[in-house]
Design a protein that fits this description.
The protein is of the alpha/beta class. It has two domains: 10-104, no CATH class; 137-298, Rossmann fold, CATH 3.40.50. The chain is 52% helix and 10% strand. The chain has helices at residues 6-12, 34-53, 60-70, 79-94, 120-134, 139-143, 157-164, 180-194, 212-228, 242-248, 262-268, 281-293, 298-327, and strands at 58-59, 103-104, 145-151, 170-173, 201-207, 234-239, 253-254, 272-273. Strands 4-3-5-6 form a four-stranded parallel sheet, sandwiched between helices. The chain has a two-stranded parallel ribbon with strand order 1-2. Strands 7-8 form a two-stranded antiparallel sheet.
């Protein structure tokens, strides 16, 4: 009887018992030939420099598109070079040339509640620090507006979050078509906001690739919210759009013709598709920030933020008095 143990699986696939992957040997730059060494050095330098400028991880696709522009004639926009890049980055991470936290990959969501292991005083201090962050009003409530950004690009969440956190915007990272449960919960949030309100505005922003599935996912998510759950919101595609592709001269990738949605896409656009990653981190963040700022009433926003800063100072003072009183 097959139990599907690791040992059995290794045997079936013709691997040694302790094998992990053929790509787990560390990268040694000195052993590479000139062309792959040039690519490796540019890759390692770009990733480390990018993280030093802003501590958010890059997706491998972003590194790929950077190399397409930076190393024209050496590195090309092909599946072959991209697959080689995946292996190169893995080996560089294993070899300590690229810290593990500097690359973002598609990850599972994890839930694991355990005691924090803090002593009572440390726990109180931590709670007071969190209270400082929570003090004050939500400026979106004051503007009578509600906004959610939806994306299929889970690898890019840390970079999108860099902007959404600054503007107190809800960010939902989904994966593909299995999003009904999450969208049901988001519909409840929309309904909670709109209950007992008049003259409110609600928005659903979308960030997906410009390819058959990316556009269809945008369509599906918006349709579930508006047509199935009857949410009265404005759906707005932030990126990627064809005018952005043209203005930024983004490198294309061939459309997957076996994708069941490819026929209509190719009739509407072309045989090429484009990924959000190709915009690069800075342009992507500026685009999202610009679209969020378009719907902000800054007179209301500034007034709320001023009051919030005053509340934060009050909270700090209360926290300090509580801690000092405890020590006495």
């Amino acid at each position: 009887m097959d139990n599907y143990t690791l040992d059995e699986l290794q045997e079936w696939y013709g691997r040694k018992t302790d094998a992990v992957s053929i790509s787990t040997k560390p990268l040694v730059l000195e052993r590479l030939k000139e062309k792959p060494r040039t690519i490796a050095q540019e890759t390692i330098g770009f990733i480390n420099k990018s993280y030093s400028e802003q501590p958010t991880p890059l997706s491998i696709r972003q590194v790929h598109y950077y190399l397409v522009h930076q190393l024209s004639g050496v590195y090309s926009n092909t599946i072959k070079d991209y697959n080689k890049l995946i292996t190169l980055i893995l080996k560089a991470r294993i070899g300590g040339l690229i810290p593990w936290h500097m690359i973002s990959e598609t990850e599972s969501l994890v839930s694991h509640m355990v005691p924090a292991g803090m002593d009572p005083e440390a726990a109180i201090k931590k709670a007071l620090e969190e209270a400082q962050k929570q003090a004050g009003l939500n400026p979106w409530d004051a503007m009578n507006k509600y906004i959610v950004v939806f994306t299929e690009k889970r690898e890019l969440q840390p970079q999108l979050e860099y902007i959404t956190n600054d503007y107190f915007v809800r960010l939902i990272s989904l994966r593909g078509y299995g999003a009904w449960s999450r969208l049901y919960r988001e519909a409840l949030e929309y309904q909670k906001f709109s209950k007992d309100r008049d003259n409110y505005e609600m928005y659903a922003y979308f960030v997906t690739d410009h390819d058959p599935s990316g556009l269809d996912i945008n369509r599906l998510y918006a349709s579930i919210l508006k047509n199935f759950w009857k949410i009265d919101c404005e759906d707005h595609r932030v990126m990627l759009k064809h005018d952005q592709v043209k203005s930024e001269d983004l490198p294309p990738a061939p459309t997957k013709v076996k994708d069941p949605r490819a026929k209509w896409y190719m009739r509407k656009f072309s045989t090429n598709c484009w990924e959000v990653d190709a915009l690069g981190r800075d342009k992507m963040q500026k685009t999202l920030e610009g679209e969020i700022r378009k719907i902000i009433d800054f007179k209301v926003w500034d007034a709320v933020m001023k009051e919030n800063m005053e509340n934060i100072e009050k909270t700090k003072k209360i926290a300090k008095e509580m801690m000092e009183g405890k020590k006495k």
